[in-house]
Structure to design on (397 residues):
């Protein structure tokens, strides 16, 4: 009996691989009279799969979903050029690639992200007969918020962070691009949709796993959350973002709707002489996935700040100077000693007195003086002293 196999591609590991397909999938048959199947596989540039590195198993572990029909998973990672090159044609005009799944996955992804946004920012007020549906943000702001999670750059970065990029089947001469990574993420969601028969609880978990939908900008859509701040800092220092694992509270059932989540965060801290371990795990909670991740990131951030490891100004050779403090703190930001640009706000008080608040890297310093410039200098100076104290530099306010 002939055996149908899946063509080879190049993996990061130098091992070529093959997949078994169901009887009615890929019409590429090996000679049933072949004396040595391994020789025939080698002639076709195919190789038996190493079970310890089965891409199906690896991908299912990453997305936390086990496929009933594994061929859907394989199709999601198959580029059109690869399908044409190996003749993976299911029926006339159909190349057996990921494109139709991309169409489906794009729609599902938009739906899940939109639903998460509406869960947090929208509500129905039945007492308002004329306009019962209310939302905290305008349509334009909601579109901007959604685009943060469905744009090409973000999807490509998530594919890379999760390690899914290395499983894409490219045609000869085809190069990896952000568009290809975006297509794969959409197709993978589409494949799960078909495989789970549109089970929204399953799709909700998978899409959130792939995208890490984070919605904690209640005061200002442009304001950075602890999740963004901490991820940026961790990426800068360790070349990757922390690992977040979000799961519903035990005992909750998908059909009842999840209303409480726990988040495990695993992160690194810089090498230090303070006896603080460089690898940490914390557990946090929240009413939504987004809030659980935000709280976990905030806890990790505050832990690092408390231990004086958030910023490292020890090599800046800076002596705070009240008269020059505004320029000093700006220079620290430009030289990358600080991750955030200092922000100033002013309040006019009685008797021509101004109050200025300076916020930088989670540290706030305030100053009062007659005149805005003097108040700003005082606020910058006090912020500098606090930043240095946080970094373990012995300076007194």
């Amino acid at each position: 009996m002939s055996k149908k196999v899946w063509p080879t591609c190049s993996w990061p590991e130098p091992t070529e691989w093959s997949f078994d397909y169901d009887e009615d999938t890929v019409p590429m048959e090996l000679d049933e009279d072949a004396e040595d199947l391994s020789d025939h596989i080698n002639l076709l540039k195919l190789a038996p799969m190493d079970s310890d590195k089965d891409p199906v198993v690896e991908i299912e572990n990453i997305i936390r979903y086990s496929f009933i029909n594994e061929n859907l998973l394989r199709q999601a990672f198959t580029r059109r050029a690869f399908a044409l090159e190996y003749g993976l044609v299911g029926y006339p005009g159909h190349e057996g690639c990921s494109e139709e799944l991309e169409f489906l996955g794009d729609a599902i992804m938009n739906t899940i992200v939109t639903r998460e946004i509406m869960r947090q920012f929208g509500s129905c007020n039945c007492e308002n007969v004329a306009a019962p549906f209310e939302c905290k943000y305008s349509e334009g702001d909601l579109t901007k918020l959604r685009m943060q999670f469905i744009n090409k750059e973000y999807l490509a970065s998530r594919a890379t962070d999760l390690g899914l990029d290395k499983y894409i089947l490219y045609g000869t001469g085809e190069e990896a691009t952000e568009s290809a990574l975006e297509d794969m993420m959409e197709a993978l969601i589409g494949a799960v949709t078909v495989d789970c028969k549109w089970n929204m609880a399953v799709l909700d978990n998978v899409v959130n796993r792939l995208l890490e939908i984070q919605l904690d900008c209640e005061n200002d859509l442009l304001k950075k959350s602890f999740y963004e701040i901490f991820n940026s800092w961790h990426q800068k220092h360790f070349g990757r973002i922390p690992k977040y694992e979000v799961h519903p509270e035990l005992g909750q059932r998908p059909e009842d709707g999840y209303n409480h989540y726990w988040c495990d965060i695993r992160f690194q801290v810089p090498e230090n002489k303070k006896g603080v371990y460089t690898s940490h795990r914390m557990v946090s909670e929240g009413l939504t996935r987004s809030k659980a991740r935000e709280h976990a990131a905030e806890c990790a951030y505050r832990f690092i700040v408390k231990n004086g490891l958030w910023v490292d100004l020890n090599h800046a050779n800076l002596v705070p100077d009240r008269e020059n403090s505004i320029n000093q703190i700006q220079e620290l930001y430009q030289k990358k000693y600080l991750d955030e640009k200092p922000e100033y706000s002013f309040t006019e008080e009685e008797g021509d007195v101004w109050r200025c608040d300076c916020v930088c890297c989670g540290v706030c310093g305030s100053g009062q003086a007659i005149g805005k410039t003097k108040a700003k200098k005082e606020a910058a100076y006090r912020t500098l002293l606090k930043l240095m104290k946080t970094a373990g530099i012995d300076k007194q306010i």
About this structure: DSSP finds 13 helices and eight strands in the chain.
